[in-house]
């Protein structure tokens, strides 16, 4: 095949690509913490909450995990528009990501909580800690520690999933790529380039989250226990 | 019905049909690719481990929509004019192959080392040992996560909307543009996806419980 | 309220069922302040259950149980308040693996008693000294031997300044050579006048340290007496039990 690769579009469009990178990273960073908090609350609700909370959480988790993200995004974005709520693509994308990753985090954290030996909780209660104190000081740190690698993978997947947000005209990296290829007709090269950028961002996010673990879990830092 | 015409609802179900077709393509292709990937990842050969590992790392680090675009434009610059189904099918094959390979590698490695040694004592060749001793046990372990991954395949076929493949998501988008009833249209689409995925999720967790009990 | 002479723990015909199974069939027993009471008996005799009733880990089904002036049989009991007064040490230590020794010890005083950081650390230093592990304050549980972990668990209990400490087979998971160091700590607490109830398999220890030995059999208090009773059992059951070398 006599195809001549041409990456010269980079000269002209690299600032656009950079903007796309920032938007992708922005969506990701904005979604990680709220998604983690939502998921953890749901896990606690499903494990220790009253029956109606357990049922509500189960419904939410199963509804989200058995439908595609893109349908959730369309439902939210176009639905809100029809209701007359003016909401930009970026906040809509972040809300959808938080709701989506929250459901997966709930399942991961639930497994984390369940893996804690009963004796730990009993010991905490016997020291006169209230259930909330025991949850916060004894169960939560151990649960997070145990499932941290799974959480990291989940958040990397979430970053990759931002690639569909151009469907609601958020100009993240994939959206920028689409725009560039429509001007240059160099679709293959453009998407190769952003594939490499995504690979780099995935590694960066993974490293950053591992760094967060390094800071947050002093025991792992001191003893070098692998996560 | 629900403010949609019968034709519009039928259109959604036609899209759902293509979602199932693409899912099956992805699963069959993914199995054909995933088996060698799994063997490579579990292999003693450093080269095989590296090569299969690179594929897995690439697929797991690049968004599926981007893989779809790369395949789509890659095929067209190779001089072929193919329908979106082929591009989407190839992309789903790459995606499923990498993930299934990684899942199955775990299943092969989960078979205890002593089983290999037991096979050795029975004077079986390496291939015989793998086929008759290791594989049946690995398959048993592999069933729950594989069924679970089917759900991922079905959901992720929705990303083919970026290359305008006509599936459930695409048809929902079209109907929404025509009717401007997003809640109705996307709720129906979500329910159809749910009806396909949820039974498989239930099945996966039931298999998982049964495996852990035994 | 309890006068100084009144018992800290008072069992009166206490019954406890697990479903259809009756584990405690009417137990009567007093523990006075400063007393060390050893509960002995075969597994299934109800001794651990009796101990776990004292800090409300198990709720009783019949009779009366009064601990540190609180009636555990009378409707709702504030378990948090009870557990500020009653410490417990488990067979499996149950130290919090993500916290250092010092953090394990200061967690409850800080959260429950709302003691400041500096003061809590002073308390930790004091109780660690008591169990002979001052140099391990910054270690993590997994860096310690079983015996050391159990001593930290005792220190963690002491830090709450309890009126009473329960010991549930605290040496059963330990190698014989590590058992000694834990028993020595308990012996020291006994000399200092700490009120303690312990479920134990260490007959020699029960005999030398306990003021009262309670032999339980089939959910009942079968025989009670000073440590010396183990040398001269009255009942056949205790004679068999002592003779079996358990």
Automatic annotation (TrEMBL), chain A:
A cellular-component GO term for this protein: ATP-binding cassette (ABC) transporter complex
Gene Ontology terms describing biological process: amino acid transport
Membrane topology: Multi-pass membrane protein
Cell location: Cell inner membrane; Cell membrane
Domain of life of the organism encoding this protein: Bacteria
Record field: transmembrane: 20-48, 69-87, 93-113, 190-213
Name the record gives this protein: Amino acid ABC transporter permease
Species of the source: Xanthobacter autotrophicus
TrEMBL record, chain B:
One annotated GO biological process: amino acid transport
GO molecular function: transmembrane transporter activity
Membrane topology note: Multi-pass membrane protein
Subcellular location: Cell inner membrane; Cell membrane
Primary localization: membrane
InterPro entries reported for this sequence: AA_ABC_transptr_permease_3TM, ArtM/GltK/GlnP/TcyL/YhdX-like, MetI-like, MetI-like_sf
Domain ABC transmembrane type-1: 16-204
Alphabetical keyword list: Cell membrane, Membrane, Transmembrane, Transmembrane helix, Transport
GO cellular component: ATP-binding cassette (ABC) transporter complex
Residues spanning the membrane: 20-39, 51-75, 183-204
Family (UniProt): Belongs to the binding-protein-dependent transport system permease family. HisMQ subfamily.
Name listed for the protein in its UniProt record: Amino acid ABC transporter permease
Source organism (scientific name): Xanthobacter autotrophicus
UniProtKB/TrEMBL annotation, chain C:
Signal peptide start and end residues: none
Glycoprotein as UniProt keyword: no
Stored InterPro entries: AAA+_ATPase, ABC_ATPase_HisP-typ, ABC_transporter-like_ATP-bd, ABC_transporter-like_CS, MetN_ABC_transporter-like, P-loop_NTPase
Domain annotation ABC transporter: ranges: 9-243
Location in the cell: Cell membrane
Keywords: Amino-acid transport, ATP-binding, Cell membrane, Membrane, Nucleotide-binding, Transport
Family the entry assigns: Belongs to the ABC transporter superfamily.
The protein, known as: Amino acid ABC transporter ATP-binding protein
Organism: Xanthobacter autotrophicus
Source taxonomy: Bacteria, Pseudomonadati, Pseudomonadota, Alphaproteobacteria, Hyphomicrobiales
